[in-house]
Structure formats: C-alpha cells, structure tokens
# Entry
Amino acid sequence: SRNFSEALFPQIGIVTSINLQTREARVFIPLFNLETKEVAISKSIPIKGETVDVRVENIKVEISDVTYDALFDNDTQAICKYTKGLENGSQIIVAFICGDIQNAVIIAWI
# Structure
C-alpha cells in the first residue's frame, strides 16, 4: 500500500468536475495518481459560470467633464455571472484535513 504521508501538506491538483449547487469539485492529484470524491471549494475562489448577487450603488458617469448619476432612483441589485474562474482542467492547490485524502478543501486557484 502507498504511504500517503505527503497528504499532510497541500498538493497541486487538477479539477475534473464541478458541482455548482454544492460548491464542490472532484480533483485529480498527480502525486497520488488518484481522483478525490467531491471536496469543498473555498468561498474566496470564483467558479466560472457561477452567479453572484451584486448591490449597485451610486454609479456616476462622466461625459465631457460633466458627471451624471447613472441611477436616479433607489439603489438596486444585479445578478452577475463570473466569466473567469475555476473550471474543469484548472490547476488548484488542495489541503487535506488531518491528512485524509478524501477530506479536503480547494484553497487556491493557480
């Protein structure tokens, strides 16, 4: 059996699938030549195609040195979609909880 002592340290991996509903992904770890089950994706990492609510406030537009309010009514909300972010094939760094290969978190997008 293989010694997975390297799992005590974060490893580079490649995303093989993403579940947008749960913010989890399967990751291939080349060092171990294995694919994880779905593991959590850090909330600080954008996922390509994921939608986010954005509050729009006090937008100003400047035309020929004159500033105009772009919104005259109340502040509003918008739904935006990430055009860049984690996707299949992305290289990531995954940290293993207590050295457990199947209990991990994607902590960085390279």
Observations:
- The chain has no helices and ten strands.
- The radius of gyration is 20 Å.
